[in-house]
Amino acid sequence: MRSMMKILVVDDNEMSRDLLKRVLAISGYEAITAADGVGGLEAAKQFRPDLIISDIMMPGMDGYQFCRSIRMDADLRETPFLFYSAAFTSPDDVDFAYNLGATRFIQKPQNPRKIIEAIEEILREAHPSEHENESRPLESLKEPFFLKQHSERVIMKLEEKVAELEQTHAFLETVLNSMAEGLVVINKDYSIADVNAAACTLFNKLKEEIIGAKCYNLIHGLSRPCGSATAICPFPKVFNDGAPAETVYEHTIVCPDHILEIIASPCRDATGNIGSLVSLIRDGTERAKLQEEIAQRIKDLEDFHDAAVEREMRRIDLEKEVKRLREEMDKGG
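User: That's the sequence. What structure does it adopt?
Assistant: Structure tokens below.
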């Protein structure tokens, strides 16, 4: 019965793995999972699945290596093998998968219904594998051919990923350097890891002069992290409390004629640990001057108001005095 059929799902992405497991369970299949080819091969030997679904890009033993290992195993070589991949999807990638003995290739993402239809079709056909009755593996499974083709596929994919990363990095550089505010990334040892163009302009230094410098030395000219000698530094608070913090610095070594408004936030890694912080630095000099001008204007208005009130009170007093004098004159006449 179909409900007794076991399907092995091999994928290093936990979310993708769990999603497939739920889809298979709803359709009446028993799903077994593994996070890479090594675990998948162990599970295949232990549970003897009726079908295998595998990703390609995985750590350790990737999908190509896993498929080859299945096809090289006398007890497992007839197991239907379905590749489900989002990375290796070029025509050459797909051809290599079929040359290794893949039964079907489906590109991620795919509608779950389509995946189930493909599984049912594979299991319903149950055609003898092209490996059946062969005493030796396919030519494509032999080590020299496999190593050559596998290396070509992996190297091409790595080159694509490097190109994508370079494009992403260039885009992020453009975005960061388009910011009006200075941006500084600071490591936990207070060394500066990166800055944008606005920060270089604000500090009046080249990027190469800033990277690697200690923030307390660059900003304040100190030989150790900031203490009571300066305004309260927000950076230790960010590292210790894991929460954003801000402060205002006046007359720093790096910007003696400027007021710096600093907002710092923690940067966490995949495990949640804080390894660095990102700090936005805004030149608040002009705003401070504007605030001073506004405050002075308010004070002038208040002084004018007070003077006007005083004049009005004196006028009222004079009118009262005039009225009194007139009344006295009238009585004397």
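The chain has three domains: 2-141, 179-283, 289-333.
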